[in-house]
Specification:
1 helix; 54 residues; Ribosomal Protein L24e, Chain: T; 7% helix; two-stranded antiparallel ribbon; single chain; globular; two-stranded antiparallel sheet
Length: 54
């Protein structure tokens, strides 16, 4: 059985790959940041990672 250690951020428009160890978890999904996990309350482009415009 393989253990998944990295996956794409669960935010649909996000390009970030997150480590399952360091990701922000919400509703059994993995996110790269609190902004993505909370549905971008301040608008998109706020995940804080260079090159990602989610």
């Amino acid at each position: 059985m393989a253990t998944v250690t990295q996956m794409k951020c669960a935010c649909e428009s996000c390009l970030c790959i997150v480590s399952t160890d360091g990701a922000v978890q919400k509703d059994e999904k993995f996110y790269c940041s609190d902004a993505c996990a909370n549905g971008h309350p301040d608008g998109h482009g706020d995940c804080g990672h260079k090159g990602c415009n989610c």
